[in-house]
Amino acid sequence: MSADLRIGELARRTGVSPELLRAWERRYGLLRPERTSGGYRLYSAEDERRVGTMTGALGRGISAAEAAKLALGGAVEQPSAGALVEALVAFDDVGAHAALDRLLSSFTLESVLRDSVLPALRDLGERWEHGEITIGQEHFASNLLRGRMLGLARGWDRGSGPRALLACPAGEQHDLSLIVFGLALREHGWRVTYLGADTPLATIDQTATTLQPDLVVVAAVDSARLSGQADALHSLATRFQLALAGAGASETLAAAIGATHLDEDPIEAAATVASRSRR
Predict the structure, then answer these.
(1) What does the alpha-carbon distance between residue 207 and residue 44 come to, in Å, rounded to a whole number?
(2) Residue 78 has pLDDT above 60, yes or no
(3) 178 neighbors 246 (Cβ within 8 angstroms)
(4) Long-range contacts of the stretch 8-16 (C-beta < 8 A, 24+)
(5) Which residue range forms the structural domain that includes residue 199?
């Protein structure tokens, strides 16, 4: 196949900078240029095809190494919650961490959260509701996932982007979806301060007063945890941008107290918040 493209032309056609193209060539062997007698590299239509395949894979959330493997003709495992869930319900600590390791090495964090962690949480919740798993299995799974997600959250308050303060109100213990939201929001450049489960509204208010965040998110699965604190939430909403999230939140309550209702899944909600902040 004829090689007649200089790297600048290849960059123009693919929308990938020459610096990144050179990095992909060096790290993954993605490009296979021919050299002219003058020492110039020339690239072919096949090189252009591989770059297109790689950028398409990156856009689907596949990691750079796996995207390059796919572009070079290899097979890439699709993200799945199945192996993770089965390890969790079997109390298989090593297996669950190994499943997460494989996913995180092959896909972007957002992809792993969207396509594996959230489906795993839904699957486990449904199994628990139907009596298919025990409280012990649900607690084991929740604690393992919480620990791993918080490990990924290390340093998520660094940077210079907008700051979000995240918490669950007093009595609310279900915080995994809120952690996922925080991780996804961090991927959009936000800084995150996380107070976690079972946080009194007075503590949330005091922390917000200290930090002056761009957004406060209070999330609950139990609607009573929010509706029972309507006055305190209204007070918070008069001084800060407040959003309610989780199955216990509603558009009616949010409107009544002057807050925003995040009714999407955590990944989509993070994207919505980030989009609004750029307007």
Answers:
(1) 58
(2) no
(3) yes
(4) 10/43, 10/47, 10/48, 10/51, 13/48, 14/48, 14/51, 14/52, 14/55, 15/55, 16/51, 16/55
(5) 163-277
pLDDT at 123 over 80: yes
List, as one string, the DSSP characters of 148-177.
Answer: HHHHHTTTTT-SSS-EEEEEEETT----HH
For residue 208, give Cα distances in angstroms to 28, 33, 153.
46, 56, 20
Query: Left if phi > 0, otherwise alpha if psi is -120 to 50, otherwise beta: which for 101?
Result: alpha
Instruction: Provide the residue type at 41 as one letter.
Output: R
How many structural domains are present in the chain?
Answer: 3
Q: List, for residues 45-54, the tens digit of each pLDDT value.
A: 999 999 999 9
Q: Is the pTM of this model over 0.70?
A: yes
Answer yes or no: is 158 within a domain. Answer: no
Torsion, Cα 203 155 161 235, to 10 degrees, reads -10
Q: Are residues 138 and 177 in the same domain?
A: no
Query: Phi/psi zone of residue 31: left (φ > 0), alpha (ψ -120 to 50 degrees), beta?
Result: beta
